[in-house]
Amino acid sequence: MAMSPAPHPLPPLTASDPGSFYTIVVSGQNFPITASALQYDAPNFFTDIFFNSAYEESRTRFLYIDRNPEVFRDIVKHMQGYYVAAKDEVHQENLILDAHFFKLRRLIETLRQHLYVNVSGTIFKIARETILNDSPNFFALLEPFSDRNLTPTYFCRSPELFKDVLSHLQGYDIHVRDKVHRNNLLKEARYFKLNNLASKLALGTDYIYSGFPTKPEERIKAEVTMILCNINVRHVLVKGWRDYRDLSSSGKERGESLSSHQDEEDIKMDHQLLLQQQPSSSSSSSSSMPANVSKEKILLHNQNLIQSSDLQDLLYKPTADIEPLALMIEISSIELFAIWPGSVNSSMLGDQHLFVYRDQDLSRLNKICKHLGLQSLTMAANVVKLSPNIYFHLDGQSYKGQEELEPIIRKLALTSAKVTPPGRALRLFLGRALVRLGCKSGQLVMTIVKAEGWSSDKEYNACRKYLTDDMKDLGAL
């Protein structure tokens, strides 16, 4: 926002020059003001009245106005060259109203540098430059009306959480105390449409580095764990993924994100068309690509990635300043069917396992599939894999790796053989699970790395908790 140039100092006023004063009567109170003061923030209401050549014959040095005298005292201070600041939100409103009434543009610019926000009765005075950070956001919607900031904007939200939101807008890192605090902050970020804050909070935890790489080149591998419903589908990509850039922006850095939302929608449509028109290819193209390439070549490159017979990691890039992170999701309230092949000599922990999850989880996964051009999941039961190093907390006991989990799964399967004939599945109820996402041959691949659950209602009931004795005191209230 361009600031008005500093005004020239006013000439000293002396009692020997009474002819230079004009008298303005505001609701019965007299205010003597010099001609130079009236012309300080010109053109304005007073110069139109006192110095307009059209009213030469009727020119007068007295003016009667029906306004608030207390507010007008600050108007006079402004015209005398002093800095005027609002004492509170009511004073701010009254000053802005009178600044518009008297057409004082400099005063309007001064007053609009700060904004008053009322959050459930707590007033926040905030610099306008601060509150417009992380734009576009909810406050940017108020910008067209910023020069007429009438009654303070009222939000029926938490003042304590708004302090954290304000710290983010001021450029500070927010100290997240616990999971509840993070979820509440995420709700506030979405309410005020602070996309950068929402993206950081949705990560759930700061990204970490894998300490046990399976390959030497993966010794430093950044990953992030997110709850499935918090994932922003637009931030999901495949390792080696290329975004389309306009050829006119060849001077920008490679890997730049889409320039506009409309470009993104066009790419999604073209991507779907290419997937239908181009034959599938199992060879993966190199992620290194010249900057000036056609849109079709980029889409074909992405298609080769998702159609590759090699497992490709799904990555998450929430902001431009964060490197893509390997994506791990947390899913809750699901069922896992461990397929029993019917032979005691066969492994129970092969690739044939089914996830059955809620409709909202299926919808979110299908949005990811559509965004990347992967095959859609047609039903709530889909094949998943178990990591060789899976950690499974089953029926109150912990099992590390498939070698420890295999015997108990086999025992449960044989025990349930009467109700689960060979060739059917052992049904497990999972409270939650951590799943690594990837893609292979155009399909979404899910690998369970950690889970906790129960094999029956009996085992689940055994894990139920009683209400604490403190709850008994509530009966006396």
UniProtKB/TrEMBL annotation:
Organism the protein comes from: Entomortierella parvispora
Biological process annotations from GO: protein homooligomerization
Cited CDD domains: BTB_POZ_KCTD-like
Stored Gene3D superfamilies: Potassium Channel Kv1.1, Chain A
Name of the protein described by the UniProt record: BTB domain-containing protein
InterPro entries linked: BTB/POZ_dom (IPR000210), SKP1/BTB/POZ_sf (IPR011333), T1-type_BTB (IPR003131)
PANTHER family: BTB/POZ DOMAIN-CONTAINING PROTEIN YLR108C, BTB_POZ DOMAIN-CONTAINING PROTEIN YLR108C
Recorded superkingdom: Eukaryota
Domain annotation BTB: ranges: 20-119, 120-209
